[in-house]
Every structure is written in structure tokens, then in C-alpha cells.
Amino acid sequence: MGAGTVHEAASVAEARARATATGPCDLAILDLGLPDGSGIDLVTELRSQGWPRIVVLASSDDPYAVRSAFQAGAQAYLLKSASPMVVTDGVRRVLDGGVYADPSVAPVLATGTRVPGTDNTPRELSAREVEVLQLVADGQSNKEIGEELSLSALTVKSHLSRIGRKLGTGDRAQMVALAMRAGVIR
């Protein structure tokens, strides 16, 4: 898929050490079932260190694990039992700037959750905000969204700012994950 360098790790400690040594790379694919710690905590750490794209690969379709991975900052949740095509599609979607959930865990996300620290839910987004957020989920840049909707990139940025305030996050991936969980976008 175009990777120039691949680093492997067999434990959370080894992954943490390699991540610190290399600094943020284009993509991290993390197994949540590493033997010596929480993969969810590692997702949070990598996001805070500036890793732009994180894909979780897990054996569990447990709703708590799925939600926790997205809340920690993952852009995709894939099952180890998935077909190679599903895994490839998920990784490509993330590399293109989108968010992806394995089709078998997508219903878990559609049940929705309240946004921590706010009284707002993704259902309170305007039709235009939902439209903008769906295009973000499809991996489009502000400029591309603006062209598609006949808006300036600055207007798109304003929409994203309002969406962020309503959802309690300024992170594009988290905005998309919250809206996906609530079934507002696909």
C-alpha cells in the first residue's frame, strides 16, 4: 500500500519505545491484545504525540472496546477475522483522511453515546453540518468540500468549528467517530 518503512512490536512497551524513537509516522496499526498493557492507552499516547492516523486491529467486537478505541483517537477499528479486502479498505480510507469501522462493528457505533462534558449530541447538527461532516468522513479536504458544496474553504472551516463546539472536540477524526456512533453519518 505504499509503505516505505514498517516497524513491528510484540508488546506495548516495545511499541512505545519504537514510537518514541521514530516519532510520528504516517500510520500506526495497533493490536489491542498485546500482552503487557492497554492498547487503548497506547492509542491515546500516540495521538498525543502527534501520530496522525491510527488503525486498531482487534479480535473483539465488544462495544466497550470499539467505542474506547474511537474515543482514544483511532480512525479505524478492524477485526482480525476480517477479509483482506475489508482490512485493505479500512486502511486506505484512513490513509485518505477518513474513518472506518469494520462492517460487523458498525451497528455498535450507530447506537450512539452522549458527548462527555456537553449536553449536545450529534443529532443536534444542522443539515449542512451533517453534509460537511460526511464529506470529512469521506476523506475530503476543506478545499474539496468547499468545491463540492459551492462554499469557500473558510466557510467549511467555520462549519467544522461549530461542529467541534457542539460535539466537544476540535479533532476531525473524533467528530466523525462521534457522528458515526450516533448514526448521523455513514
From TrEMBL:
**UniProt feature coiled coil, ranges:** none
Q: Which residues carry this modification: 4-aspartylphosphate?
A: D31
Superkingdom of source? Bacteria
Entries under CDD domains matching the protein: LuxR_C_like, REC_NarL-like
Please identify the protein, giving its name as recorded.
Response regulator transcription factor
Where the record annotates domain Response regulatory, the positions are 1-95
InterPro entries given in the database record: CheY-like_superfamily, NreC/VraR/RcsB-like_REC, Sig_transdc_resp-reg_C-effctor, Sig_transdc_resp-reg_receiver, Tscrpt_reg_LuxR_C, WalR-like
Q: Which Gene3D superfamilies match?
A: 3.40.50.2300
Instruction: State the species of origin.
Output: Amycolatopsis thermalba
Keywords of the record, alphabetical order, are:
DNA-binding, Phosphoprotein
- The keyword Phosphoprotein appears for this protein: yes
Does Phosphoprotein appear among the keywords?
Answer: yes
Report the Pfam families cross-referenced here: GerE, Response_reg
